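Re: that chain you flagged

S.,

Sorry for the slow reply, it's been a week of failed gels. I finally had a moment to sit down with the sequence you sent. For the record, here it is as I used it:
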Amino acid sequence: MYSFQRVENPRTQRLEQSAFQSVSVNVHGRLMLANYEEYDCIAAEMSPGDVKISCFGRPRTGERVIAYLEHVGRIEGNVLRLVEDGFVMSINATERKREKLAAQLIWLANKHELGLPEDRRHDRLMPRNTASQLMLEDGAILSCRIMDLSFSGAAVDVDARPQLGSAVRLGSLQGRIVRHFMEGVAIEFNRVQTRETLREFL
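Prediction finished late last night. Pasting the structure tokens below so you have them in one place:
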């Protein structure tokens, strides 16, 4: 099973992204370059400090880029170097965010080894509009960010942890809380959606 440890290397301590071990992952997402062009992408290797991205888009070394990755959410950083099928980018984040990311990566890296099943019955979608609102049963409205979206549900980054099974509304979509995780909650919609009913996010 994978775990993360800092790699003590005096030559790379000046670069925070070089102070972590990387693990192999296969995480789909969407990339935005500095000129606002967007491309589908795949994170192939990742640590809490950097990530190797496979993508048709070819940024310049040093260019600032933003990626939205399934299970991980939004990351941003600068291109460190180009490789044959993509590039390696730094991940600009606070120490707390890096700790969260390390926990997510451990889960992703161990997922296959542990035989953990996919928890979605439908293909994942990449929302273009990730900012939304979550309405709770008592009418309270919370700002949230969509991390993962499918026709059957969504994972959102939100501070509150509503009770499991409680009814909520994400934007205009009704559902219920089915899981808590480090950064937020997973919502199962009351009915399977279509691209048309999800248009507010796509």
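What I noticed first: Confidence is low (pLDDT under 50) at residues 1-18, 112-121.

Talk soon,
D.
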